[in-house]
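Crash report, auto-generated. Payload:
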Amino acid sequence: MTTRTTPCAGSEAAETEVILDLDDISLSFGGVQALESISFDIRRHEIRAIIGPNGAGKSSMLNVINGFYHPQKGTITYEGVVVKAMKPYHAATRGIARTFQNIALFKGMSTLDNIMTGRVNHMHAGLLAQALYIGKNRREEIRNREFVETIIDFLEIQAIRNTPVGRLPYGLQKRVELGRALAAEPKLLLLDEPMAGMNLEEKQDMSRFMLDINEQYGTTIALIEHDMAVVMELSSRIVVLDYGRKLADGKPDEIRHNKDVIEAYLGVAN
Amino acid sequence: MARHWSLVTSIKTAVGASGLLNEDTPSSEGAAADTFPKLLLRNAEQLASHPAIREKEFGIWHTRTWSEVKSEVEQLAGGLLALGFERGDKLLIIGDNRPQLYWSITAAQCLGGIPVPTYQDAVADEIQYVLEHAEARFVIAEDQEQIDKVLEIQEHCPLVQHLIYDDPRGLEKYSTGSDRIHAFTVVQEKGRQYLDKHPGFFINSCQQGKGVDAAVFLYTSGTTGKPKGVVLSYDNFVKTARSGIELEHLTADEEVLAYLPMAWVGDHLFSYAQSYCAGFCVSCPESAQTVQQDLREIGPTYYFAPPRIFENMLTTVMIRMEDAGIIKRQMFHYFLAVARRVGSDILDGKPVSFLNRVRYWLGEWTIYAPLKNTLGLSRVRLAYTAGEAIGPDIFSFYRSLGINIKQLYGQTEAAVFVTIQPDGEVFPDTVGKPAPGVEIEIQDNGEVLYRSPGVFLEYYKNAQATRETKDEEGWVHTGDAGYFDQVGHLRIIDRAKDVGKLTNGELFAPKFLENKLKFFPQIKEAVCFGDNRSFVTAFVNIDLDAVGNWAERENIPYASYQELAGHEKVYSMVNDCILQVNKDLTADPKLASSTIHRFLILHKELDADDGEMTRTRKVRRRVIAEKYAVLIDALFEGQGVCHVDTEVTFEDGRKGVISADLEIREISSAA
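Recovered output after restart:
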């Protein structure tokens, strides 16, 4: 893997339009209040980070966004439309893709095939045509394969194109998962701890990929991440959660000097 | 007119089919093609639709013919000219092997400029040195990684005016609104506009160069001091390339994979000069990591690799065979034994019994052919190895499979060839006979001198070094010590200056010992000490792949190189290796005093980033002797353990310190 210089701060998200607006979201599981009236928005083309200590509700937040959980209270507005009771596959067709905290790939399949599955929403031919590789399907499949090859090139994983994913090291599996999410050509990309368990070099590569995705494909990115240095350098704006509540929201510099945030992270004694 | 045309076409087809090129009566002028620009014109004419270069991109091999290459080079040259490139300008080229970068070499030469290919893994400081020294005004880089390096040092290099990049990824921001940073395609577009206005410029410009002109600067990695810019002429390369082509009967139908650094003289000869002279196609791998797969897909007929690549391939095969099923494994070992007995003889055309031929044939069918296919060596007609000594076992392994691998001895200063092993006279421990046109002389102190058409013009801006290396009659001092054996083959034993003496007056040739150690798959690097000492000691680097795999099978847990290197059992294993080397040494009365008495396993791998090795992975003795002075003293003073702090440079340029307490072992047969 090539080494690159330290990534610069994320694109200066000018006041672009809001792609996703979350208003007063509350989510509870039985007696456990996972999210408590949280409001924030994500603007088109920005890199938005969601941070917080363990159990702060970050993953729940992503699950709410892509329709895996349905909040008891509050409204979600995606691209100007209020979405109610959205299922994950609706989210997918509307251009929301995600990666998972625990890698969720098809272990026995090759990198190429795994990424091809991300194109499922771009395959329209019938079952028979697909089985026989004829007519419309043939053209579709070639077109999709071309797109997938651009992603493989983009993520620099040519060398593992035909390797079964289960045999790859963790860092590369993460990258394949990102590739699959990208294959869907998402407008909004949700990344759940994309750098967990990576070494410094892998983190730098991953940061570079995120910036490049943001720049080259114009994809809006919402990410959960623990590594503060990475978050501060990458994101345009950061929302901080703690015990299901919103603690702070703002630009990296504001967050860095926010007293509540410092307390939550460093646990200042009373 | 029509008749005339058809005649010309049929001649072209005939030329293409037979793979022979007309050397003496090429293009319009009637003069012999003695420069690469003229060779390009000739190839574009005579081999117009023959593949010239290939690149794998987005999973597909894209082929360009010679006429397409000509038009690419033409556009680039036009664009460079439009940017202000003048005759005598230097063009720095940094990146992996890419067609665009090979075209850049020719484009600079077409304009009467001089290309300066640079190692793609060089750090910014190293690039700065070359940029300043060569006074380059133009840089063509592969991608953002390389552009970033140049931008990092730009304030120190005010001469640099234009940066051109091939892969636009991440660079759009850099070039918008900049009149210094340009995309390759944009420069070519400028070139097209220029060509529209000046249609005859390209051919004129190409015809201006002469064979004696400087063609390229190749900076030697330099085992000592700053790199030197070796200035080589068109004649150097064209004549050397042609004599090589003649000797080995290379044709326009060879297949070559260009995967070694473009800054290295070997790549310049095999993938550039010989391709232009013979007209064969060169393929560029998809990325540095995919070389093994690309090798298999291309199936080269002409292949070059330094010994370590052959070694790595063999190690991988052996490791993977350990994991294979029992039937496969036994077949593999049985037929490998057969090949070892008779394979080389069959390759050399020596008499072999009928039964053994049948066995070998069966082996070819079940084991050798599939194995060669996996390695991508099925079609290899000619393979060279050079640069370092190759282990006899490794060498014999490939030859026994029917791969015609030969050793050669060469230098940047000679445009590669000094000696080559002729077909049928291949031995693991020699480097062969003088190449065509090369004269060799051995001096009294054992140093090898040569004179040939490939001898370089000078070291750029370093008249003193030029004088020290090349005398008035054109003899070049190699700095290597060697001798001719009974059959007239040259044997190289060490660098002349590294050959030292033990206190008892006996010869001490460190590299000879180190190579013997490195022939063990477990040992990756070794550094021996003994000059002016009473006995010999060694630093050892274990091979993480080979030893790591062994450790896994032995259930030895380890978290890092350092931990594995310090393991008791690893020490015992290395001890056994050294014991065997010592046994071989005692057999030779001249070397009996060089037996290794004490050793240690280093806590980190020797690395080019830390200055301990050159980019071509040659050990830098002086740096190591300074950096690890504590350890060397401990080796000779008889301590059992020694503490050391070592500064290391990470791949991103940051520095850190590794500390360790290293065990020092006395060689014992009891261990």
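Post-recovery validation: The longest helix of chain A spans residues 135-154.
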